[in-house]
Amino acid sequence: MRRRRIYEGKAKVLFEGPQPGTIVQYFKDDATAFNNQKRGTITGKGVLNNSISEYLMLRLEAIGVPTHFVRRLNMREQLVREVEIIPIEVVVRNVAAGSISKRLGIEEGTTLPRPILEYYYKKDELGDPMVSEEHIAAFGWASSMDLDDMVPLALRVNDFLTGLFLGVGLRLIDFKLEFGRLWEEDEMRIVLADEISPDSCRLWDVKTNEKMDKDRFRHDLGKVEEAYQEVARRLGVLPDSIPAEGSRPMLVQ
After folding, report:
1. 66-97: per-residue pLDDT in tens?
2. Helix axis angle, 144-166 to 45-62, nearest 10°
3. Which residue of 99, 108, 222, 238 lies most exposed, with the fewest beta carbons within 10 A?
């Protein structure tokens, strides 16, 4: 049956879930870069990101990281708990790449002395500007208690994913996380939200340093679909077939 659309973003559409307190995430093939200045399509990306994010969220749940993920519904949809999204993207950097290389003049590929956390205010019209903990506290985007939960969770996710990806021959260069407040009766807890995929991670091949993520789209490197498929293949979650994106989804109960 068709359900009410709640929100459409750059990579996903959110629909009302089958039970109260749930949301259905539909993964699109649309791709954007440079704060939506570059747009395109990566065939099958939605299917691959759905499977990759499911796998990683389940692995993180298994080590005690709380997430909004419930289950995958089909090739392009997954059921998640409804959360109050905190409007801050947490970026964890292990190796210099992208904006940090440009801002600080650090050669891309330089291993950082320790994982570095950065915060970005989720505001498309402002280009998701980088902010400090002072900004976050002053403008009430997250409380100090929220950050006390988010920072250790981000570092724990980094430790786990670094090892997991290394085991399949990939270096986790950096990645973006989003968090949400999950309300259960009168109690609130911070949980990992959104997705974890080659859209939100920089992944390089350990042996060749070949980029295996959305940078291939950003910088017109070619073989974008193949890179996403290779990440899924190495993780053991490559679907048997990857249908092209069709019309609006029919959601299952």
Report:
1. 999 999 999 999 999 999 999 999 999 999 99
2. 110
3. 222
Give this prediction's pTM: 0.92
Q: Which of 219, 8, 30 is nearest to 124 (CA)?
A: 8
Which pair of structure tokens corresponds to residue 189?
């807890």
Contact yes or no for 169/206 (Cβ under 8 A): yes
Chain length of the chain: 253
Token readout for 209 is 């340093």
Q: What is the dihedral of CA 36, 38, 40, 45, to 10 degrees?
A: -60
Q: Name 130's Cβ contacts closer than 8 Å, sequence gap at least 6.
A: 118, 119, 120, 121
Spatial distance between the Cα atoms of 129 and 124, rounded to a whole number of angstroms: 9
Topology of domain 5-82+223-235 in CATH is Phosphorylase Kinase; domain 1 (3.30.200)
Give the DSSP H or E segment for 155. helix 144-166
- The CATH 3.30.200.20 portion of the chain extends over 5-82+223-235
- Interaxial angle between packed helices 224-235 and 45-62, expressed in degrees from 0 to 180 and rounded to the nearest 10: 30
Q: Which numeric CATH code is attached to 86-205?
A: 3.30.470.20
Cα 73 to chain centroid distance, Å, stands at: 18
pLDDT, one tens digit per residue, over 104-139 is 999 999 999 999 999 999 998 999 999 999 999 999
d(CA 84, CA 201): 23
Domain with CATH 3.30.470.20 in the chain: 86-205
